[in-house]
Design brief:
The chain has helices at 2-14, 21-43, 49-61, 72-91. By secondary structure, the protein is mainly α. Helix 1 packs antiparallel against helix 2 (21-43), helix 1 (2-14) runs antiparallel to helix 4 (72-91) and helix 2 packs antiparallel against helix 3 (49-61).
């Protein structure tokens, strides 16, 4: 799961560059999948900060009913904050004892 979280963060930070629209569609799909994985995993522990935060990220980035902010400058802080949240979550994962 850590790899997926770091992939999402990397894609979000790359999204700050001026890239073709196809990249942003891929970004929406991958970030939504990563967010839903965290929500499902964390929901086992009950409602907490991570469930709400990644639920919001999943809603914002979902490719089925996209949120349009019309200007790239409006998405830049969202991408940056979301990328930081993915990195923080990846470092707070607990190792499972086998």
């Amino acid at each position: 799961m850590k790899g997926l979280l770091l992939l999402c963060a990397t894609l979000l930070f790359l999204g700050l560059a001026d890239l073709p629209i196809g990249y942003y569609t891929l970004l929406r799909i991958v970030v939504t999948i990563g967010s839903v994985v965290v929500v499902v995993t964390e929901f086992e522990n009950g409602l907490n900060f991570w469930v709400f935060t990644f639920g919001l990220i999943a809603i914002l980035f979902n490719p089925l009913i996209p949120v349009y902010l019309n200007e790239k400058s409006a998405w830049m802080p969202i991408d940056t904050i979301s990328g930081i949240i993915f990195i923080i979550k990846s470092f707070t994962l607990k190792q499972k004892i086998k």
